[in-house]
Amino acid sequence: AQTVTQSQPEMSVQEAETVTLSCTYDTSESDYYLFWYKQPPSRQMILVIRQEAYKQQNATENRFSVNFQKAAKSFSLKISDSQLGDAAMYFCAYRSPQTSGSRLTFGEGTQLTVNP
Amino acid sequence: GAVVSQHPSRVICKSGTSVKIECRSLDFQATTMFWYRQFPKQSLMLMATSNEGSKATYEQGVEKDKFLINHASLTLSTLTVTSAHPEDSSFYICSATQNMQFFGPGTRLTVL
Fold it and tell me: Is there a contact between A108 and B43 if contact means CB atoms under 8 Å apart?
């Protein structure tokens, strides 16, 4: 079974600065998908960014980018120019393409605080 | 983007009663929906996978007779917590799939 590990329960960053959230995973599959979700205080899960394992290029979405290291099974999220609205719980998630209905395996989460 | 709604957003009930939570995909059809449970400051725990027209698949340790799931149409799945007890108090989240998962806003259940 796949596992996802987020080793940083809490992180903090100054507004306008850059922060990196870590995520590692374990799998024997060669093809899969990785995601970062944001859960603000409203608790609505919001997709931040996704990465297909077969793509070597790291995904980017505006201020959000990932460092995908397939051999190391690492998938970190970098948030540039941090904003107060970025404060939230961030979850890393794994999805096997072979699983029907796109089941997700989540990490434990990292609580991000943005200081003004 | 795809929108998923949940109703109610918040419910308080007495111990021993049953509570039904609805999950709807508003602008797409979802053959598969998922139900999660989340305790404060913890991750989402998958409870069951709900497929339209068939019985739900429950995760290990989840009582299927306590958490009844019905997926009667491609846009609606319901979770009924039967004979609720205070330990069932939690935040319940559903998601619906259309190539990827789209999440509902969640339902906070408090059992007195």
Answer: yes
Cβ–Cβ contact B32 with A under 8 A: yes
Q: What is the mean pLDDT of chain A?
A: 94
For B25-64, the pLDDT digits (tens) are: 999 998 899 999 999 989 999 999 998 888 899 999 999 9
Those of residues 13-42 in A touching chain B at CB distance below 8 A are 42
User: What are the DSSP calls for B47-103, one per residue?
Assistant: EEEEETTSPPEEPTT--TTTEEEEEEETTEEEEEE-S--GGG-EEEEEEEEESEEEE
Check A104 against B101: CB less than 8 A apart. yes
Out of A43, A102, A107, whose CB is closest to B43?
Answer: A107
Using alpha carbons, select from B1, B35, B12, B23 the residue that is nearest to residue B84: B12
Q: Quick one: A14 exposed, middle or buried, by C-beta within 10 A (0-12, 13-18, 19+)?
A: exposed
